[in-house]
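Recap from last week: sequence in, structure out.
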Amino acid sequence: MPELPEVETVRRGLAPVMEGAMLARAELRRPDLRFPFPVDFTTRASGRRILSLGRRAKYLLIDLDGGDVIIAHLGMSGSFRVEDGDGSDIPGDFHHPRGKDEKHDHVVFHLETDKGPVRVIYNDPRRFGFMDITQRDAIASHLFFRGLGEEPTGNVLDAAYLAGRLFGKAQPLKSALLDQRNIAGLGNIYVCEALWRAGLSPKRAAGTLVDDKGKPKTTLLVLTDAIRAVIADAIQAGGSSLRDHIRTDGTLGYFQHSFAVYDREGHTCTKPGCGGVVARIVQAGRSTFYCAKCQK
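Predicted structure tokens:
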């Protein structure tokens, strides 16, 4: 499913259209997606001005006046399509084009903007996505958000924080990094890439990156920098364009062309002087790609 950089790209694509607009009507074309819509979703969302679009982990947050927030998750195949008098765009980065078949248009936000009426349409063939609405001051305690770890962006995530989360853990490092209680929004693709950049095996015990006093070792400092860098690079490139994940202007993201290990099984490792071969293993039901020669 779309990972944090792809969701952030969607947010940035929707923000210029939605922020400041009046959400005249929220139209639900079915009673549920992955989960049922709240019974008061339409009445709470309609007739409200959109203050801002945010993101927490892999969730989009649409802040409305009055204190309500629409929570949206794209699931496996969800996308937003913006339609106005000049045509339509699909904000995001999707390798295989997202569907525009209207039978999968499940939610329509009818907006009134300075440039006229706009429709923002949520299309989801598999219906693994979902939406909710809640009060902004209840976000931290909401089922989707309580217990989430720090975001892997900027300098908020640091080695001291990760040392506290990994201390004494015998679980594989990759599994610990995918645990949303440790790092919010970090997914399979970017964990593989960050571990390669840091030269760390996905199979090593997570606790080996922390010393006996609970302080981060040099390896954890390197890994923390690698996580932040790979996420920043992916956002700048507009996402990875994996599976069926398209940008606001209809073009694809390009970070997938920079993959060092992900989905490169059998290819020669690109790290200078390595010469190893990228392998694929399965951990907790997920594919892991790494170079056993340079990742220890």
